[in-house]
Amino acid sequence: MTKLGTKFLIAATFAATTAFSAGAAMATATQAQPVTKTIYVLADDMGLLGPDKQHHDSFLPSSFVLKAGQQVKLVFVNYDDMPHSFTAPGLHVNVIVKAATHKAGSDAVVPTETTYTFTPSKAGQFRWHCNFPCDKGDGAGWAMKASATGQDAVGYMAGYVVVM
């Protein structure tokens, strides 16, 4: 092989290695970005209508799908002036969602944001619920009553995280 051929081969190898490394670095950087799931927490007067025709404290969405091994950032936007929890024992997650505040001089509520980042490691269906007593409006705690599948009413103060 000539000197020119050798130089070309070295340059081509260097370019290919650099391009591969840059591509791998970009793929790693892309994978490191968490998927964001925003969950709204609504007070009973804003929450979902129950079978008793009353509004109840609610997490929206109450159920969602995640991918195993992919980092996720949960963003809870709480419009209730009470704290809540997002407790999923099977995922080893227990997030305390901060209470909303009241705007000075009015009845208006200023929502608060609580974030929690984790990576689900195994596939499955995991039930979550709120540990804090709430839903004290006209429905007198209906959304906190145990259902056949566990603590709290699914679709209101409980739900499922499905990890694929």
N→C terminal distance: 53 Å
How big a fraction of the residues is strand? 35-45%
Note the main sheet.
4 strands, mixed
The total tally of domains equals 2
Provide the structure class: alpha+beta
The level-1 CATH class of the largest domain: Mainly Beta
Number of strands: 13
Strand order of the largest sheet: 4-1-6-11
Quick rundown:
The protein has one helix and 13 strands. The chain has 164 residues and is α+β, with helices and mostly antiparallel strands.
What does this structure look like?
This protein is α+β, with helices and mostly antiparallel strands. It folds into two domains: 33 residues; 130 residues, Sandwich (Immunoglobulin-like). Helices cover 18% and strands 35% of the residues. The protein has one helix and 13 strands. The chain has a four-stranded mixed sheet with strand order 4-1-6-11, with no helix packed on it. Strands 5-13-12 form a three-stranded mixed sheet, with no helix packed on it. The longest helix has 30 residues. The N terminus is likely disordered.
